[in-house]
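Retro notes, item 3 of 5
We never archived the inputs for the adenosine-5'-triphosphate complex last cycle. Fixing that now. Sequence and ligand:
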Amino acid sequence: MPEHDPGHAAPAWLHDGTLPVEDEVLGLLKTGKEAEVFIVERRTLDGRRRALLVHKRYRPTKVKAKGELEALGFAKARTFANDHVYHEGRRYRRSREQRAVERMTDYGKRVLADRWPGQELETLERAFAAGATVPYPVAFTGDGMLMQLIGDETGAAPRLVNARLSPADVAAAYDQLLDELARLTRAGLVHADLSPFNVLWWEGRMWLIDFPQAVDLFTNPHGFDLLHHDVTTMCTWFARQGVATDPEEVFASLLADAW
Ligand SMILES: Nc1ncnc2c1ncn2[C@@H]1O[C@H](COP(=O)(O)OP(=O)(O)OP(=O)(O)O)[C@@H](O)[C@H]1O
Ligand SMILES: [Mg+2]
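Structure as it came back at the time:
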């Protein structure tokens, strides 16, 4: 497999603190169920270096007063995804939290939701280190994280579903998919929400995004099922684009390889 494109690593000045930087929010890119995605320009104060980033911010779960989210710069209220499946097999700090998570009380839901931001960054770092084609992680921001914008000044990259690939692109993308899945599973990672909606298409490559619910293939009791689901979802889309694909075979070979 080819190594990372060296141009893809995060430039050091973005995160090593050696040069003073400022961030400017250029605009809201998307509001999702739990998070909002902003385009941010980070630049050195001397104006000589600049980079376009994405700030994915999870809406806080402890907000009580009306208008508080707006005051924090969010556009929409938060809805909660029933996510206990993804978190089984993880250990929680205190048994009170553990019990609350198991019973899915309001408090338990909040315990889970509060973990998304840190968890997503951690997973993105693992995926990046595994050589997967993902945005480079830049920093944790408390409510979320900063990462590479896939796209440029003219706009963010389209999602695979909107990207009008040529037949040659489709074939290349499918080969890349197998490669990306192999890199992730070898690192013991399952995306767990992989779909053409969470894959961007940019400069002739697929970029995997949206990792907060990722699980460990071997320690999560649902790891294999979630991988199977990811594989089936992606293969179904590629089959509709005319690719001859056998999801069961792909799944089996990924497992054999990861073992
Ligand atoms: N690094 C990035 N570069 C470019 N666009 C991005 C990036 N990260 C996210 N986006 C855009 O923001 C959208 C939402 O991001 P993401 O899928 O991570 O969040 P989400 O909360 O799951 O949203 P949704 O509920 O819409 O899936 C993506 O579909 C994509 O269009
Ligand atoms: Mg998404």
